[in-house]
Amino acid sequence: GYPTDQITLADDMIKEAVDMEYQLFLEKYDNVEENIPIHINAAKIIDGLKAAGFEVVNYSIDNEDYQEYLEMIDYHNNYPAYLNEFKDNLPSKTVQHYVSYKLLNMKSGAVYVDIASSNSVFADIAERLCHVKAYKQDIGYQWGIHGNRIGSFASSVPMPDHSVDYMALHCSLEHFEGDEDFKFFKEAYRLMPVGGKVCIIPLYLADEYIIQTSPSVWLYKYTVYDQAPELDRRAKISVNDSICQRQSKFLSVDILKEELLEKYSDKFRIQIYYIENCREVKGANPFALILEKKI
Question: What single-letter DSSP state applies at residue 192?
Fold first, then answer.
């Protein structure tokens, strides 16, 4: 059966169902290994991105400005529940919020949608700092639009064409299953007017295309799914229950070129930001993606 040394499932029926799904999963995929190492050679990836035709922008976080942002937002006093949920990696979350805030440069009165928002507080931060109308979208919300919450898949947001000026995805695109991540690019193009921007941070890139998956959470991580995830057969599949995710996808340069650059270079200005001092300010991953609609 699937690895059990790091997890405990109290309900034997759930454990049996997960084990059955895992056996079917192994019969379906022939490229599965346990705990495949993820290698991220930033210099090699950057060279590959440039060779593929991507625009790569070197970006350095102004630490003084970042500290001023932290004082202004005051996560500890204004968002205690969020602080409690992400107390072990709050620094990387705040770096993501800060960078998307700076790179999107949202204009007052615009419409912003926080994609795959879950319990994120960034929609509230965007309203406070930028004076935008902010929505939160997630598959875990009640389906449809209810106040500022949108329950939907990110690839089919129930809002009119050209109605969203800005979007951001914080630590979420890598969890979109099947081809939902690539379908989101098409949906972003539909939703935005010319000049609209999407920030994806982190953009999880690695030396090779690897998808991590945790069998123990397949049946209860999200209420919209009740089976094992459909994984891209082009990737190596790594069974890793420690990540507690149905999937976490690390794209290679070749896959990003095939699914983004070759399909959307005429529709978006595509910029990949390399955050040079990301680790110095406790950010977890050095890459971010900005898509700006150009036609």
Answer: P
Q: Are 139 and 224 in contact (CB under 8 A)?
A: yes
Residue 202: cis peptide before it, omega within 30 degrees of 0:
yes
3-state secondary structure of 216: helix
Q: How far is 12 from 180, CA to CA, in rounded Å?
A: 32
Q: Measured between alpha carbons, how far is 202 from 166 in angstroms, rounded to an integer?
A: 17
Name beta bridge partners: 211: 237, 249
CB 286 within 8 A of CB 42: yes
Q: How wide is the angle at C-alpha 240 spanned by C-alphas 175 and 120, nearest 5°?
A: 35
Type of residue at 125:
I
Of 56, 97, 63, 91, nearest in space to 76 by CA: 91
DSSP class of residue 53?
T
The torsion defined by the Cα of 256, 269, 150 and 232, in degrees rounded to 10, comes to -10
Look at the pTM and tell me if it is higher than 0.85: yes
Q: Which residues fall within 8 angstroms of residue 257, CB to CB, at 6 or more apart?
A: 52, 53, 54
Q: Using CA atoms, how far apart are residues 170 and 128, in angstroms rounded to an integer?
A: 18
The secondary structure of residue 162, as a DSSP letter, is T
Structure tokens at 220: 């209860």
Cβ pair 54, 257 in contact under 8 A: yes
Residue, of 2 and 153, whose pLDDT is higher = 153
Q: 289: Cβ–Cβ under 8 A, 6 or more apart, which residues?
A: 198, 199, 200, 201, 203, 270, 271, 272, 273
What is the per-residue pLDDT across 214-242, written as a single tens digit (0 to 9) for each?
A: 999 998 899 999 889 999 999 999 999 99
In this predicted structure, the answer to whether residue 82 has a pLDDT above a threshold of 70 is yes
